[in-house]
Amino acid sequence: MQWIIFMLLLFISSVEMLTQNRWKKQVSAGLLENCTGCVLCSEDNGCITCHHRLFLLIWRDGIRQYGMCVHTCPPGYFGVRGLEVNRCTKCRSPSCESCFSRDFCMKCKDKFYLHKGQCFRQCPPSTAAQPGTRECQERCEPGPWSEWSACTHEGRTCGCKWGVETRVREVPGAAREEGGSCPALLETRKCRMRKHCPGEKSEPKNKGKKRQKKTKTEPHVGT
Fold it and tell me: Could you give the 3-state DSSP secondary structure of residue 149?
């Protein structure tokens, strides 16, 4: 009886060992796929170090940590190259799709707008949402108009009948740098100039007529 029980236990133990070995082979096969590009790979944690051109991407599943070597970091991460290993570092903001550093976003996820490296559901005051680029653009609010300039024509302020005068207004530096769409910042209008400049002698209007009349009245001297 004891011999039968012993043989039964031995059979059960053999089945368990066979099952475990099969499971380990399946896990090893899966890990080999995840170890592509690895220099050092662990059965429990995947890639530990990568070839120098690849990035090491690490993610967590509960308390476990896994590594994978990738050519480019996935959305929500940015690549940092180092002397020993290149790593994919996660963006700090969960609404950021791609970032330049942990705290500076370059592109936001859907339903968010980018403004100065941050992602917002609604654009801050004094900015306008741009649906095409999903960015918040500074509103261009020009200051007051300046006084009209002197009336000039080709750099002269007199000596012509008509000239042009201009006035301008400025916008804040932030809106100008952001490339905001601004209204007109310069206006011109036609103006009347002084036809004669100070110090110039004006020729009488009837002077030329008198000369012509005098020439006509001179008698013709015959030979």
Answer: coil
